[in-house]
Amino acid sequence: MNIIVDAMGGDNAPEEIVKGCIMAANDFGEIITLVGKKDIISEHLKKAGYNGDRIKIQNAEEVISGDDEPTTAIRQKKDSSLRVGLDMLHKGQGDVMVSAGNTGALITGATLIVKRIKGVRRVALAPLMPAETGCFLLVDGGANVESSAAFLKQFAIMGSIYMEKIMHIKNPRVGLVNIGSEEEKGTEDVTEANRLLKEIPINYTGYIEGREIPCGAVDVVVCDGFTGNVILKFMEGMGIVIKRMLKGIFFKNLKTKIAALMVKGGINELGKTLDYTEYGGAPLLGCTKPVVKAHGSSNAKAFYHAIRQSIDMVNNNLVDTISENINKY
Amino acid sequence: MNIIVDAMGGDNAPEEIVKGCIMAANDFGEIITLVGKKDIISEHLKKAGYNGDRIKIQNAEEVISGDDEPTTAIRQKKDSSLRVGLDMLHKGQGDVMVSAGNTGALITGATLIVKRIKGVRRVALAPLMPAETGCFLLVDGGANVESSAAFLKQFAIMGSIYMEKIMHIKNPRVGLVNIGSEEEKGTEDVTEANRLLKEIPINYTGYIEGREIPCGAVDVVVCDGFTGNVILKFMEGMGIVIKRMLKGIFFKNLKTKIAALMVKGGINELGKTLDYTEYGGAPLLGCTKPVVKAHGSSNAKAFYHAIRQSIDMVNNNLVDTISENINKY
User: Fold this and answer.
1) Which residue ranges does UniProt annotate as crossing the membrane (chains A, B) (predicted)?
2) Which of A143, A182, A249, B118 could form a disulfide with B266 if both were Cys (CB 3.0 to 4.6 A apart)?
């Protein structure tokens, strides 16, 4: 397997990306191709003391930054690490691509270059999010601002397949985000999607309200990309605030510092539950080849997990399974 | 002033409602009219030892439950506490109404019976939510599933007036929920609302992403009712989960219990920040008379705060100020 990695994407590129790839190459035994400025990448590989043969470099002179407008960047920055990586994936010069770069550009590029699976209406971003009990997949986390009932139905099918094949959850529970539990509540798209989801052989448990999401009431949370992105970022914001408040509580004085030591393990666990960046990358569901969006602030360890996730996606034939099932219902 | 109170609405009615009203009658010196089953209310007043003359009772034989379909309930349950209370408010037999009952029925009833201020396109539910620094008003928290740009503009104006007049925040910062900071990002309604909000004399600070909301980046968070309701309930759910996890951490063994005692004050403060029910009721913005939705799970103290809030709304001429400003821009 050859894993294509955008070496220049994200806040900590390329240093942390390179470090994560070295760890992954050593542990997983697959080939990794780092795409980006050859000199800089070589330097970082050298600096990290890597002298194996599993990491290759593909030169790309340009970089798409977080501020670049996605469509323009993909069309104009033809020699950017993100674009070159996607071109390689499209041509079969790799099996999966991982990037911590510009999310919009990755989604746009994956749609335009790698293309959608036949029958898939929209590519969805599907971050894995922490919950009180385990975790859940949020589809769509922001790829599609507006999502019709037909899109929502496909998000549910793809999300369900992901949780079953990659997270090994049998018969994953799928919930549709709404603002009440009554059948006819919500937007037209949501009520129509509710009808569609009842007719297909997934474990659809009905509407889910915001209150039930953090408990882990379902394994797949389906919603339009606007709502999903607000949930994703609101959770991130609350995590940051609560961590900062806990710090304030525990670092107040000597007594509270001692208390902190006494509950250290538990508080660390809580911190992990509040930090969705701990949960690896977000797969792009619906492309003809697997693509993983690693969090923009990924450090080496987070990126290492995103690579493991990308390997799982290839080994478990995620794309084929989606392709086989998406047109059935 | 005469405050009309739905004595039968909410999870803890009528006992906690009656208790809260007794506290409020004693402290604020206004007349309170409890609407509901006379015998039961009298019994609770007696049980609580109330023998003042500031609390009146208006009999109403029916009760609208949380499961009732709002429009049907308002039309058919003509002798329900909620409907009778709104009728009284409409007829001028009271100055403000407070209810912890069925949210949908209260919004529908307020719109149909008390009616909208001339020029107001939609009534909005505006819960006050806790943030790291202070609190913010969420408009709309769920009254309008879909909200056009014109609605969003009015939510911003009404929310801004509320925070200025009732919460005494000078020049309140107003943010519009979106999934990015770029001008053209988001739905058509949101980008159009962004243009409209720039043209009016409120302190509009632009788009706000989910991440910035819990920090208290703005005083008024404007969004459609679907997104607002998801935010509201997601925050509630996260609060419940985090409190439960903290309990688990601190009640594990003797050592952790001692640690709990050492940081008790701080943890209690954190608990309050996580619990939006602590923040009083949600005003309905845009009606010709002030209406306050108290949280369904309100206890006596929460209801007491909702009554204080309703008095503030009357004393500070909220309705008149909205009426004077809503058609100006």
Assistant:
1) none
2) A249
